[in-house]
């Protein structure tokens, strides 16, 4: 089940936080609750992706994006992700989540998020390719930024993000089906 109550709590908790610059970092704190765990008594990998919403949506609000989306009846969707899991997060463990936009191109906004344990170790990290969507399809980030009062170019994306995007360009779509699955 989607953590609606936790999302509202995060939005309420950060409602008076100062606005963030386009590539500013939103920091939030969360607990791994019993319904977040898997059979191995640690944060479920799929739930990790859902919990990242708890940092991404307040980030979008603090940067002014949520207001723009509502005003224009636009949406925000994920168009790709790459995750690294490195340390276990156990039940009732408190984590710090860091969320920030890395940059954008003609179609997508690239976001990085990470979860940090109390001992300072990074438990996991994700990079997202996100799209603003409207009635006519993808809204170019430059158009959205102009509507927010920003006429700026994207910072250069880190090399590791560019390499990920190059690898994504090589990946077939739609996926190749196994011979026994083709009609």
From TrEMBL:
Q: Which SUPFAM superfamilies match?
A: Thioesterase/thiol ester dehydrase-isomerase
Looking at the record's lineage, which domain of life comes first?
A: Bacteria
Q: Which residues form a coiled coil?
A: none
Xref: InterPro entries: HotDog_dom_sf, THEM6_lcsJ_thioesterase
User: Which Pfam families did the record assign?
Assistant: 4HBT_2
Protein name (record): Acyl-CoA thioesterase
């Amino acid at each position: 089940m989607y953590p609606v109550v936790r999302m509202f709590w995060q939005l309420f908790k950060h409602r008076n936080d100062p606005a963030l610059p386009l590539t500013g970092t939103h920091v939030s704190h969360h607990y791994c609750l019993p319904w977040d765990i898997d059979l191995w008594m640690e944060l479920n990998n799929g739930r990790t992706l859902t919990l990242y919403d708890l940092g991404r949506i307040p980030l979008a609000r603090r940067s002014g994006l949520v207001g723009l989306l509502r005003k224009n009846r636009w949406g925000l969707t994920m168009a790709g992700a790459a995750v690294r899991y490195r340390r276990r997060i156990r039940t009732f463990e408190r984590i710090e989540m860091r969320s920030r936009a890395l940059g954008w191109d003609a179609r997508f906004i690239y976001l990085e998020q990470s979860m940090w344990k109390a001992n300072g170790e990074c438990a996991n990290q994700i990079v997202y390719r996100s799209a603003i969507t409207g009635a006519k399809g993808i809204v170019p980030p430059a158009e959205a930024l102009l509507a927010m009062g920003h006429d700026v170019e994207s910072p250069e994306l880190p090399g590791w993000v560019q390499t990920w995007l190059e690898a994504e360009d090589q990946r077939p779509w739609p996926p190749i089906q196994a011979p026994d699955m083709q009609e």
